[in-house]
Structures are given as C-alpha cells and as structure tokens.
C-alpha cells in the first residue's frame, strides 16, 4: 500500500498518516468492550497490587495487533521486517496467554519462551545484517557467533526488565515513549524504515496511556510489556550501536533488572544481601520512600529523559571525534 500512496505523497506524509492511523485505531479499539480479555486478579506481593483487581488486563494484544496492521499498511515491508513483526506478535501472544491463564506461568516457562524468541530474532538479524557495530567513534567487527550470543542476552534482558517495570499506572508505557522517541531522534538516519514502525509504536502507546494513566481502567499486561521489550532490543541492534541500549534502557534495567538480580542471587546462590531493597525499584520508591504513584512515574520519566540526553551527547561527541 505504501508504494501506491508514495506515487502522489511524500514518504514523510505517509508516516504522519500512519502515525495518526495507529493512534486512532488503537484508541477506538481500546474503547471497545472485548469480553474475551481477562480481568486482573491483583498482585499479592506488589505495592497496592489489590487496586488492580478487576481491571481489564492483556490489552497489549489490541495494541500490538494495531501496530501490526498499521505497519503492514504504511511501512515499506520486506521479508526481514515481516519476520521481526511476526516474532513481536509471537512475543505478545506468549504474554497474553500468561495474562489469561488461571494460574500465572512459572518464571522458567516464560524465560524459556523468551529465549526461543530471542534466538529467532538474532538469527534473523544476522542473516540480513552485518555484525559490525559502532562503539563511541570506533567501528568493530564482531564474530557472528559472538554477536549472536550477546544479541540473545540483550533481547532476553530487554524483554524481562521491561516486563518487570510494568507495575504502576502509566510507568512502563510512558518510559517507552521517551526511549523510543530518543531512538528516532538520535538514529533517524540509521534506522531507515524502522523509524516508521517506531513512530507507529509511540502512537499506539500514547493511545494506551489515555486509559492507563493513574487511575487506570485497563492494563496491557505481559502481552504489551514483553512486546515493548523485544522491540526496544531490535531497534538497538538495527541502530548499529547496540551498547547504547545500556544508557537508553537504564531506567528499565535499574527498575526491573534489580528484581531479576535479587531473585537470581537468592534462588541460585542463596545470597540475600539485597533484602532491604523492595523490588522492582518503583515499589521501593512507593513503599520505602513514600512516593505517590504519579510522583513515582514522573521520577521515572524524568530519569529516562536524562538518559536520552546523555545518549544524545555521547553520540554527538563520538561523531565529532
């Protein structure tokens, strides 16, 4: 469709039309009452987890399907992009099945699924792209096998730290909007057509935030947060600067990653030195520091904005040098 439209319209206008379509489609679909969507049961160990009980959960399925439709219609589609889109949808489906399950899936089951999807995405990336990367002002060639191993780690971590950060109304989606916007701004000349999909994703998230900002009426669940995580990892690799993920996703890494480290140390090494820290960190801020939910979200958004500025300055300095 995009090739037909481009006959008479500039590609930037097509992207704007696609962005508007992404927002409108997501907004009106989220307003609809889908009886098949599960209800949240509340989270026993989360701060104020009982307040989520009864809310519509798993609307990430609506968000990602909207992204898929708009991307197919308004983004230049090739086999590589189609495979990535399919993997993102599969990631969403795995999250949705967990959202809809009577009993939550085990960490091992979810981790294994994430591993398979991570491998599929890295294999696809290596098949279609060079494994050369940029680190500051230097270009390095990475052996495909080593790149594959590091890429799997990057994707798996991104999926899980993003998922763990989805525990306060508006937090995960709003931080994602800032981070994805930073990728578009910093790597606008590198991401190519993936700028389009990223912009579409931003609009999908903004439409969702209308319903998810405190006090929320619905939750995207694992269906949304896991898809966000795998997409962030994808564009980090497509940017050619995968290590920039550490800076741009630092809020997710600190917020959600702390909990993963805490569980790993306790479960496998029987080390409990982090017992004084409530994880994820957004729960620590609310329970230990007494911050209100909205204040916690603002702290995370501002922190992400600072990370985005730091990443931009690093890239500018690297380019100058």
List the topology elements.
Elements: H1 2-5, H2 11-31, E1 56-57, H3 60-74, H4 79-100, H5 107-128, E2 132-135, E3 138-141, H6 144-164, H7 171-186, H8 194-212, E4 218-219, H9 221-238, H10 244-248, H11 250-268, H12 281-287, H13 293-320
Parallel strand pairs: 1-4
Antiparallel strand pairs: 2-3
What does this structure look like?
Helix 3 (60-74) packs antiparallel against helix 8. Strands 1-4 form a two-stranded parallel sheet. The chain contains 13 helices and four strands. By secondary structure, the protein is mainly alpha-helical. Strand 2 (132-135) and strand 3 (138-141) form a beta hairpin.
Features of the shown structure:
single chain; two-stranded parallel sheet; 4% strand; 321 residues
How many domains comprise the coordinates? 1
Principal-axis shape: globular
How many helical stretches?
13
Distance between the termini: 42 Å
Sketch the topology as an H/E string, one letter per element. HHEHHHEEHHHEHHHHH
Structural class: mainly alpha
Rg, Cα atoms, Å:
19 Å
Strand content: under 5%
Topology, number of strands: 4
Biggest beta sheet summary: 2 strands, parallel
* Largest sheet: spatial strand order: 1-4
From the structure provided, what is the oligomeric state, counting identical versus distinct chains?
single chain
Fraction of residues in H or I helices: 55-70%
The average pLDDT score comes to: 91
Low-pLDDT runs of 5+ residues are: 1-8
């Amino acid at each position: 469709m995009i090739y037909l439209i481009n006959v008479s319209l500039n590609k930037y206008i097509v992207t704007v039309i696609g962005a508007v379509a992404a927002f409108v489609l997501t907004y009106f679909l989220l307003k609809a009452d889908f009886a098949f969507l599960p209800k949240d049961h509340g989270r026993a160990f989360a701060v104020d987890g009982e307040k989520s009980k009864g809310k519509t959960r798993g609307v990430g399925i609506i968000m990602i399907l909207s992204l898929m439709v708009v991307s197919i219609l308004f983004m230049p589609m090739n086999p590589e992009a189609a495979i990535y889109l399919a993997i993102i949808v599969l990631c969403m489906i795995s999250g949705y099945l967990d959202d809809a399950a009577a009993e939550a899936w085990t960490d091992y089951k979810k981790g294994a699924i994430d591993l398979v999807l991570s491998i599929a995405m890295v294999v696809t990336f290596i098949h279609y792209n060079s494994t050369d990367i940029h680190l500051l002002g230097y270009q390095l060639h990475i052996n495909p096998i080593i790149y594959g191993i590091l890429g799997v780690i990057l994707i798996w971590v991104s999926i899980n730290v993003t998922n763990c950060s989805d525990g306060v109304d508006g937090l995960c989606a709003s931080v994602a909007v800032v981070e994805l916007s930073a990728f578009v701004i910093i790597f606008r000349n590198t991401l190519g057509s993936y700028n389009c999909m990223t912009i579409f994703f931003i609009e999908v998230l903004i439409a969702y935030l209308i319903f998810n900002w405190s006090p929320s009426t619905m939750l995207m669940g694992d269906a949304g947060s896991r898809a966000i995580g795998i997409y962030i990892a994808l564009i980090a690799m497509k940017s050619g600067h995968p290590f920039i993920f550490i800076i741009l996703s630092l809020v997710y890494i600190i917020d959600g990653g702390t909990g993963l480290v805490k569980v790993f140390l306790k479960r496998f090494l029987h080390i409990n030195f982090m017992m004084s820290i409530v994880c994820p960190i957004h729960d620590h801020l609310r329970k230990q520091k007494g911050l209100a939910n909205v204040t916690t979200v603002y702290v995370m958004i501002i922190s992400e904005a600072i990370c985005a500025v730091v990443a931009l300055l690093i890239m500018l300095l690297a380019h100058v040098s």
